[in-house]
Each structure stands twice: as structure tokens, then as C-alpha cells.
Amino acid sequence: MPEGERAEFEKLIESLNDDSVREAYKAPLDGYRPGLFPRLLGGTLVWCGNTIYGRKPSYLKFRAVEVIARVPYHSWASAAFTLLTLFYTDEARALKLSSISHFARFASDNETMHVVVISSLARKEQPAGIFRHTLIPLFFAFFYFWMSYFLYLINPRWSLETNYLFEQHAFDQYSLFLKENETSLRARPMESEFLAWYGRHPRSQYEFFSSVRNDEIVHRNRSIHEMALHKKHAS
Fold first, then answer.
1. Whole-model pTM?
2. CATH 3.40.50.150 describes domain 35-234
């Protein structure tokens, strides 16, 4: 992502720490209703996560969520590459595919930061079993990658709407976690070499998880905005 665009994104994430600004940003798409098929897929993913890791947010649940959350962005980039290989002579279609590739590259880097930093925090906060907290998330990630890939090839809207629902769930979980643990999170200093390399410098875990919450609502909204860009470039 170009430095100027990255700076604008970080400025947006910082602004969303204000409750009124965040509400104004998210409210227009709060009532968005995905189609039946994405609702079934998204509902199944959320149900499986809650069944295995509990409904209550935790460090280890967030680690599992983030292993899976970064996957669709890689899927879209791969699907767009496949389609560009087939339809590179169609300029309008190439524009549409290049748009989703640009968004996917940035979002996958952002989600990778989440999973690396949260995994480090989880190791310090909670013991984790290999099967439940490593193998199962990897299995879900493998399934979700190919599901998102083929959905994008068949009907991009289905894949984008499924991601809308997954990111909404992540946003809700981080919001609840911050609300229930504000005092303790504010008291825990945040130190991470990877996070510093990425370019974020929160002073506490509360500030870090607030920024991750804000990332998720931006990803949620962008998933729907990408559908409008598809229609624009297709017309």
C-alpha cells in the first residue's frame, strides 16, 4: 500500500476510537442484509467458532478467529489473478479485478498483523492445546480459503457478503472484550516488535485491541463497498 494511503487508513482507524465517529461510520451498513446463501455460510462459521471456543471472547478465541479472518483476502487475490489471466483483454473487468486485488493485499497484511501479535499475547495469557487451538483453526482456514476462492469465481457477491458477516462477528467480539476488560487491558503495557514494524504504537493492550476492533469494522464496510465498485466497472 502506498505510504500516503497507509497514513490515511491509520488516521481513519485512530478516528474510530471516538464512539460517535465509529457509530456514524458503521451505522449506514448495520442494516445490510446479505443473501440467504452467505447467511447460511456465515452463520455456520460463527456457530462452529462459538461451539469450539465458547461464546465469550478470549485471547485464544481471537487467535483462532484471526487465523481464519485473513484467509478470504488471499482467496480473492488468487481468484482475481486467475480471472485476470483469462480476461486480461477486457479492460473493464481488469479494473474490477485490480480493485479487489488492491483491497485484498492491504487487508491480508492487516489481518496478518492481527494474528501474529494476538498469538504472541495469547501465549503469555492462556495455555493452548495443539489440536484445539492450532490444528482446528488451520483446518477451518483451509476450508474457508477454497470456499471463498470458488465463491468469488462463481458469484463475488456471495464471498463478499460472507466476509461482511464474519467481520461483523469479529467486531462484536472485540467490542465485548474491550467493554468487559477495560480496566485490566489499560493496565497492561503493549510491546511487540512486529507491531512496531507494521507501524502501530499502542501504549496498552486496550489501545491495541481498540485498533483491531476498528480494523474489523473497516473491513466489514469495505466488503460491501467492493460490490458497488464491481457494478460500477461492469457497467
1. 0.91
2. no
pLDDT in tens, 163-195: 999 999 999 999 999 999 999 999 999 999 999
CA distance 71 to 208: 22
Helix (H) or strand (E) holding 225: helix 205-234
Please give the Cα distance from 202 to 209 (Å, whole number).
9
Distance in angstroms (rounded) separating the CA atoms of residues 116 and 63: 9
DSSP 80-132: HHHHHHHHTT-HHHHHHHHHHHHHHHHHHHHHHHHHHHHHHHHHHHS---HII
Query: Of 36, 71, 224, 191, whose CA–CA distance to 143 is shortest?
Result: 71
Distance (Å) of CA 228 to CA 38, 39, 83, 232:
17, 19, 19, 6
- Residue labelled with grid coordinates 496478518: 112
Please provide the distance, in angstroms rounded to a whole number, between the alpha carbons at the two ends of the chain.
27
140-154 burial code (b ≥16 CB/10 A, e <16): bbeebbebbbebbee
Per-residue pLDDT of 6-53, as tens digits, reads 889 999 999 999 999 999 999 999 999 999 999 999 999 999 999 999
Look at the chain and count its residues.
235
The cell for 125 is: 495469557
Mean pLDDT of 141-154: 94
What distances in angstroms separate CA 4 from CA 1, 11, 17, 219, 225, one per listed residue?
A: 8, 11, 21, 19, 21
